[in-house]
Amino acid sequence: MTHDTPTETVRAVLHDLRAVDGAVYAAVAATPTPTLDTALRRLSRTADHSKISFSVAAVLALFPGRPRRAALAGVGAIGVASAAANLLGKRLVRRPRPDREAARVVAGRHVPMPDSASFPSGHTASAVAFATAVGVVLPAAAAPLGILASTVGYSRVHTGVHYPGDVAAGAVLGVASAAVSLTAGASLARRRR
């Protein structure tokens, strides 16, 4: 019976999680999905710079009341998520991007490989942040936006630019960013009254 220190235990758990992460990435890469490849590649590219979320926000902002408040909360959440992922997460963790060629990700899935670090997925963080914040303010939008955000996250693994763990971390960051945006919005609304 071994008596590992807490640090050794944490290292062992992280090693095992990285192994699972790599195995899931490899399994996705090895699974032929010719029907999905083009659609997921397009979705991944369209989600660059939160273009999908900003488009949805623009439509919501056309309607006064709750839809406009949802749009503002969603855009605020994107701002928080993007800053947290790109200015903090990627710079602190500095995880290299997956080796798409070694994993034999089909060329028809490829999107440009970003220069930034892999962890966390900024696309996922922003999409989940937007979907969560909008869904809280406008519950009817929660399910469709949640499905869209989940699909954007998966598309980043499918196209070979992120490990599943990067996407999972991005989703957690997105939920936290939505909470920050919603709290800030509620605080501003109270001050105005």
TrEMBL record:
Its main location: membrane. It is found in: Cell membrane. SUPFAM superfamilies: Acid phosphatase/Vanadium-dependent haloperoxidase. GO terms for cellular component: plasma membrane. Gene3D superfamilies: Phosphatidic acid phosphatase type 2/haloperoxidase. GO terms for molecular function: hydrolase activity. The keyword Transmembrane applies. The chain crosses the membrane at residues 70-88, 127-147, 167-189. PANTHER family: DECAPRENYLPHOSPHORYL-5-PHOSPHORIBOSE PHOSPHATASE RV3807C-RELATED (PTHR14969:SF62), SPHINGOSINE-1-PHOSPHATE PHOSPHOHYDROLASE (PTHR14969). This is Phosphatase PAP2 family protein. It comes from Streptomyces cinereoruber.
